[in-house]
Amino acid sequence: MKIKAKTVVPGITEGEAIVSRTAISFTGGMDPDTGIIREPGHELEGQSVAGKILVFPGGKGSTTGSWQFYAAFKRGAAPKGIINVKAEGVVAISAIITGTPMVHELEQDPLKVIQTGDFIRIDADKGFVEIEKG
Amino acid sequence: MQLTRQQEDMFEGKKGPGARRAMEILVAYGDVYDAKRMIPVSSVHMAGNFPVLMDEGIQWLEDLAGEGTRVKVFTTKNPEMYDFEEADELNIPMAYQVRQNRIHDALKSLGVTLTYSCHHYLVGNVPRFGDHIAWASSGSQVFANSVIGARSNRDGDHAALAAAITGAIPEWGLHLDENRKGEFIIDAGRLDLENYGSADYKALGWHLGKAVGTKIPVFVNLPHDMVIEEIKGLLYTLTVTGATGLVHLVGITPEAMTVEAAFAGNPPPLPEITPSQEDVNRAYLDISSSSEEKVDMVIFGCPQCSIQEVREIADLLGDRKIHPDTQLWICTSAWVKTLCKRMDFLDSLRASGARVVADVGAADGPHLYLREQGVRVVAINSARGSYYAHNLFGMETWFGSTKECVESAVSGKWEGRK
Questions:
Q1: Helices (H), B75-197
Q2: Is the minimum CB–CB distance between B156 and chain A shorter than 8 Å?
Q3: Is A62 a catalytic residue?
Q4: Which of A131, B157, B162, B389 is least enclosed, having the fewest CB within 10 Å?
Q5: Of A117, A89, A91, A116, nearest to A102 (Cα)?
Q6: Least CB-CB distance to A71: which of B56, B137, B141?
Q7: What is the architecture, at CATH level 2, of domain B5-177?
Q8: Sign of the CA dihedral B281, B282, B284, B285?
Q9: Chain A residues with CB inside 8 Å of B60's CB?
């Protein structure tokens, strides 16, 4: 399945999807050494987003999140692509400073059509997302 | 996005690599939100400190500074890890001193004013009504929008620093009139506000944050004579459990002198939320994470204590001594610490066993080494501080009023609600 999307950061990447229905804070919410979500009670708590295509509604919490994302990126623990329902400033800046391909405002709700384990290709140069069911 | 000639020069690298990188960040950022142009900013504030920057972030700042980049706009900086004057007295490990000094040197080279304060609007960074600014730090951002009437989005440090270097920010979100209208009414009229103190407003903010989310609430029936600490208590806590950037406090917020003004003409007939005292009481208990009576440390200053708050703590403590197994820290800016010296609060607090610590806030930096020094249970009069001390640094926390916290410091055990 191919869905049109709006580009936040250009680039092409592909990998396994990890989907969260709840917002994510990179400060406090994600371990920058491992990419493991560590916010108590978060639906991805204990799961790593490193090297995956991270699909979530948008950011929340501290505006310092872009520093923690940058550290995770440098340590190889960041997701390699981001799909948001609607980009929030801190997540958008995180993707911009690390050159992580990112899209938002998809023509279909990514939280409905993408499931954890699906194989995803983000083409943020042309502005679409391809989904292969896992 | 439309760029001016000067902005285009920066984008093309004619003003140096730092200005180019800053402009690249801002153009990409503006494109996400369909910004049509960049607008000048009059004030910038940076939030991050070592626990969030980490070594990679320090390197990022050093690379930027090494390129000879300088800020064009007055820029202040949030608290760091320890009091620059008391590194030895506080037993700060050398590894942290090296990090803080590297951040200090990089920011100084960039031309950032080294306030190390989160009440930067009390120490000289005061925008005017209607000014466009870039304030990272979610609490002070909502303060700027809601109390001063200056205009800032939830930008984050990289966007704020890029704005400081280029002198501009993309025009979107709260910079535009149409995005500053109230969205729903919160009626505070059922609460016993005559007897409210700062802690009660924090508990109220905690309760309401989730329902507010990223929306713009309009508070009615709040007393117009709320003191600044109470206003801060409400606003700073709303951005912990929620992520709002603007709150209309009718009668206080410059753009919301009336309900009609807050909604730009069409207020809804009924309030959407009418909090009860039970909601606030429940929030008090939700904020605390601890179940242990013994308190290792009482820490004030999230956001940093004003001189009025230091005076209140000193008055409550009187000439009593704090418990030998409990520490009491008052976190503030270097400027307020200087005032404390001048007014003899420093000596009287020291005689009680309390400590005034500058350049840090009670929510973050110090917990890094306090935890290593064996501090586990912390009492605090800030819901925001409680949240970050627990979630970022693993402290167990008690939340209560300033008086309850002072009494706990004297007895060594939690004296507030549990």
A1: 94-110, 138-143, 157-166
A2: yes
A3: yes
A4: A131
A5: A91
A6: B56
A7: 2-Layer Sandwich (3.30)
A8: positive
A9: 70, 97
Of B24, B47, B60, the CB nearest to A64: B47
In sequence order, what are the residues at sequence separation of 6 or more whose Cβ sits closer than 8 angstroms to the Cβ of residue A96?
A8, A9, B24, B25, B28, B29, B158
pLDDT tens-digit readout, A84-97? 999 988 899 999 99
pLDDT tens string A21-35: 999 989 888 999 999
Nearest to B155 by CA among A105, A91, A5: A91
Q: What is the mean pLDDT of chain B?
A: 95
* Structure tokens given for B43: 């004030």
Beta carbons of A71 and B57 less than 8 Å apart:
yes
Length of chain A: 134
What is the mean pLDDT, run by run of 10 residues, along chain B of 418 residues?
Answer: 96 96 96 95 95 96 95 97 92 94 97 96 94 93 97 93 98 97 98 95 96 94 93 94 93 97 94 97 95 97 96 97 98 97 95 97 91 96 93 93 98 96
Choose the catalytic residue: A20, A25, A62, A94.
Answer: A62
Same fold, B5-177 and B288-411: yes
For domain B288-411, the CATH superfamily is Aconitase, domain 3 (3.30.499.10)
- Residue-range domains of chain A with CATH: 2-38+46-132 (3.50.30.10)
B34 and A CB contact within 8 Å: no
- In 10 A of CB B251, how many CB atoms? 18
List all residues of chain A from 50 to 89 with a beta carbon under 8 Å from chain B: 60-68, 70-71, 74-75, 87-89
Q: How near does any CA of chain A get to the CA of B299, in Å?
A: 20
How many Cβ contacts (< 8 angstroms) between chains A and B? 84
